[in-house]
Amino acid sequence: MNIQHHLQPETLMAYAAGTLPAAMALVVGCHAERCSQCRKELRSAEALGGQMLETVAAKPLPEAARNNVMALLDQQPLPERAPASAVASTQGDDSFLPKRLKSLLGIDNYNQLKWRKLAPGIEKFNLPLDEGKSFMLRIGAGLAMPVHTHKGAELTLLLQGGYHDKLGSFHMGDVADLDSSVEHQPVAFDDEPCICLAGMDAGLRFKGLIPTLMKPLTGL
Predict the structure, then answer these.
(1) β-strands 116-119, 194-200: how paired?
(2) Separation between Cα atoms, residue 43 and residue 60, nearest integer Å
(3) Are 204 and 148 in contact (CB under 8 A)?
C-alpha cells in the first residue's frame, strides 16, 4: 500500500495525548494500522509526551477536584487506542478493513453493513461513538459529494477505491486531515466505488441551496 497522504503532526500529538474525540481517534488508529510513517511519528509523540510529564513536578490535587475528575472519567468513554505497532487484517487487494472497524462493528466485509441511502449512488453508515461525528460513506464510481467546508476538524480515511479533489488524489490508506479553512468536492474515481471512514468534531457546511436544505436529512 503506497500511502501518500498522512496525518498532521498536531493530530498525532493530540492522539498520543488522548485528547482527540473518539470519532477522530478511531480514524487515526485505523490509518496507523497500515501507515508505518505515522506509526513511527506516533511513537515519537508518545515518547515526547512521556518526557514532558517527567519534567512536571507533581502537585497534590484537592479532594473536591479529584472527585470531580474521577466522576468525569466514569462518565466519558475513552478514545479508541491500540498499540502503535498493530497491523491490519486484509480483505483482498481492493479494500482495507481495519482491525478496529472489524472489532467495533463485528463485520468481515462492508456489504454486511446496513447502509442508508443519502442520494442516488451515495450511502452512509453511522458508527456507534459518542464523541464527535463518526460515519462511513460509500460513493458510487464517478459520483461527487456536494461542495462543502467544515465547521471544525475532519479526518477521512480511504478504505476502498479513492477520490480526487483540489487537494489531489486520495487512494486506499490515504487520510485527509482537514480543518475549517478547506473547501472541496471529493469525486470518486471512475473505476470503482469509494468507501471512506470519517471522523469529525463538528458537522459539514454545504455550499448551495439544495445540499444545505438536505443537510438535516443526511446528518452530515
Answers:
(1) unpaired
(2) 29
(3) yes
Q: Which of 192, 216, 204, 185 is nearest to 118 (CA)?
A: 216
Tens of pLDDT, residue by residue over 12-48, are: 999 999 999 999 999 999 999 999 999 999 999 888 7
Q: Report the 10 Å Cβ neighbour count for 213.
A: 10
User: Could you tell me if 132 and 126 are in contact, meaning their C-beta atoms sit under 8 angstroms apart?
Assistant: no
Quickly list DSSP for 41-91: HHHHHHHHHHHHHHHSPP-PPPHHHHHHHHHHHHHSPPPP---TT------
- b/e 6-33 (16+ beta carbons within 10 angstroms → b): bbeeebbbbbbeeebbbbbbbbbbbbbb
- Regarding beta strands 187-188 and 163-165, do their DSSP bridges make them parallel or antiparallel, or are they unpaired? antiparallel
Interval 108-127 mean pLDDT: 93
The mean pLDDT of 75-101, rounded to a whole number, is 54
CATH superfamily of 1-220: Jelly Rolls (2.60.120.10)
Mean pLDDT estimate for the chain: 80
pTM strictly above 0.85: no
CA distance 29 to 99: 9
Query: Which residues make Cβ contacts (< 8 Å) with residue 44, sequence separation at least 6?
Result: none
Write the CB contacts of 35 (distance below 8 Å, at least 6 apart in sequence).
Answer: 3, 6, 173, 175
Contacts of 174 (CB under 8 A, 6+ apart): 3, 4, 5, 157, 158, 162
